[in-house]
Design brief:
25 strands, alpha/beta, globular, about 30% helix, single chain, about 25% strand, about 550 residues, GMP Synthetase, Chain A, domain 3, Rossmann fold, 7-stranded mixed beta sheet
Length: about 550
């Protein structure tokens, strides 16, 4: 016998309907590419999403068709998200910082029918246009612009496309397992791989990240998704914001520290989400201008490990709680979030910081395990000490990559993330490294994450990357690539000495390289592959091989 409860599919269109109906006047502020600011709300955004849905139907698109975007975090992009996915099509967000060959690959692999793009990406679109096999319509996300029309005569302008349509549109009652959006991995090894999310997984993920023990969203928040909408759906924040009716501040293309500090103060942002490199520039700008960012109550850090010095600074200088989170494109992305438990409330600030340094614990909906990959996924203990491969399963985890037949899962149904970590008895995840970034010296593993965190506790160091350099005796030895704070100085030996007493002597780096800037990927991660190619033979070249 089945239960006697009402059944409705979990659909993205229901999120925007709810936001428009019960939070219609809640403000959405958008910084546009041309430097202007647009103020709208959930009700108006809902209407424009329905106008766009009508426009796409008029262009001949059908449910299941893919629609691509190359765009920043702004109002038009959010309308596209809901208009495309709500009407049963698939919103394919493209990382504009991929190599042109990779952009051509992902558009052709997705068989995108329409390409929405910002004017700032016009040269990129022109450069790849002739190689795109399936794109029938190019839509510039502006009002009519003769400069754009001169270079793409067949271009359609977003404002014309939307303004000429009615806001009367009935969202279809889709199967909740219908695909909704498509994101590709960053493609650091080989071609990017597509992850095809569904309406169901997206709504469940929105519930998850809104929970108090996850990111904790409510209608009282003003949310700033600094993480790009082309990176794992901005970590799901635009969907969750609609679910709870939060106000949203969309930053557009200007993600420098001064722009973000001004935006936070002007819009009264309470929650901001981004990668550590972004928060480093924000802290520097806030200190320079003197703002204490009084509205900012918490910020979420993901993408790479958060230095302990950053958590301290936000807490001590700005009264802002930093939440460490972990995930990846294949996990929608949230796999864990670092909220304290009741047993932690009476700890000292320093002991709380030790807990905060981990990537947190899995929320309901996902499970984590640590295994020994060399012994056929032998389960390892949750003792907080034994490292192994992180594997995950749950309601919003990839099963098979887009356009691939072979499952992405282990034989028993878990997804191997490529991360090396420990789990403790409470489920707190401590990422030790990416498997490819671990340093193996004399048969023993050294965590690049730990070395980087120690380096950034030095007051002169803004950011640091630890890489494996070739060594004829020990196979690999650690080298630190360090970027200094403006106006600060430190010698190589002083930074090496900074490690004394903090880790075992055999783990102390053999060399330090001071650089003007550490190369960063389009998603804010350090490009260690590039650093290894540049400095992999440094110790041999310097003769430091004893």
């Amino acid at each position: 016998m089945l239960g006697k409860m009402m059944h409705r599919p979990l659909l993205i269109s229901h999120l925007i309907q709810h936001a428009a109906r019960y939070h219609g006047d809640t403000v959405i502020t958008s910084r546009e590419t041309d430097g202007s600011t647009t103020v709208t709300n959930w009700a108006k955004l809902h209407d424009n999403s329905k106008r766009l849905a009508n426009a796409l139907a008029a262009l001949g698109l059908e449910q299941g068709d893919r629609v691509a975007t190359i765009a920043w975090n702004n109002r038009r992009h959010l309308e596209i998200w809901y208009g495309v996915s709500g009407s049963g099509m698939v919103c394919h967000t493209i990382n504009p910082r991929l190599f042109p060959q990779q952009i051509i690959y992902v558009i052709n692999d997705a068989e995108d029918q329409v390409l929405f793009f910002e004017k700032t990406f016009l040269p990129l679109v022109i450069g790849v246009k002739e190689h795109l096999k399936t794109v029938k319509h190019f839509v510039c996300m502006t009002a009519p612009d003769e400069e754009v029309r001169a270079q793409i005569p067949e271009v359609i302008f977003y404002d014309d496309l939307v303004d000429n349509q009615s806001a009367e549109f009935d969202w279809p009652e889709l199967d909740e397992n219908a695909p909704s959006s498509l994101c590709y991995t960053s493609g650091t090894t080989g071609n990017p791989k597509g992850v095809l999310y569904t309406n169901r997984t997206t709504v469940l993920h929105s519930f998850c990240i809104s929970l108090p023990d996850s990111i904790s969203l409510s209608a009282t928040d003003v949310v700033l998704p600094v993480v790009p909408m082309f990176h794992a759906n901005a970590w799901g924040l635009p969907y969750a914001a609609a679910m709870v009716g939060a106000a949203v501040s969309l930053p557009g293309p200007n993600l420098d520290g001064h722009s973000l500090a001004s935006l936070i103060d002007k819009d009264g942002v309470t929650l901001a989400v981004g990668v550590p490199t972004i928060w480093q520039t924000l802290l520097a700008a806030a200190k320079e201008t003197g703002t204490k960012l009084p509205s900012l109550k918490r910020n979420v850090v993901g993408g790479s490990s958060c230095p302990s010095s950053m958590i301290r600074t936000f807490h001590n200088d700005f009264d802002c709680e930093t939440l460490h989170a972990w995930g990846m494109t294949e996990t929608s992305p949230l796999g864990s979030a670092n909220q304290l438990k009741a047993k932690h409330k009476d700890l000292s600030d320093e002991d709380k910081l030790k807990v905060r340094l981990s990537q947190g614990r899995p929320p309901f909906g996902v499970e984590l395990r640590i295994v020994d990959a060399e012994k056929n996924n032998k389960l390892l203990p949750n003792d907080g000490k034994t490292p192994g491969n992180v594997q995950i399963r749950g309601y919003w985890i990839v099963d098979t990559y887009f356009n691939k037949e072979q499952s992405a899962l282990e034989p028993d149904g878990w997804f191997d993330t490529g991360d090396i970590a420990t789990l403790n008895e409470d489920g707190y995840l401590m990422i030790r490294d990416r498997a490819k970034d671990l340093i193996k010296s004399g048969g023993e593993w050294i965590s690049s994450v730990e070395l980087e965190d120690i380096a950034t506790t030095h007051p002169a160091v803004a950011s640091a990357a630890a890489i494996a350099a070739n060594h004829p005796k020990w196979d690999e030895r650690p080298v630190i690539i360090a970027q200094l704070e403006p106006g600060h100085e430190v010698t190589e030996q002083e930074l090496i000495d900074h490690y004394l007493g903090k880790i075992a002597k055999w783990q102390i780096p053999n060399a330090v390289v001071l650089v003007d800037a550490i190369p960063i990927s389009g998603t804010g991660k350090m490009l260690k592959k590039d650093l290894r190619e540049q400095y992999g033979n440094l110790l041999i070249e310097r003769g430091l091989v004893d």
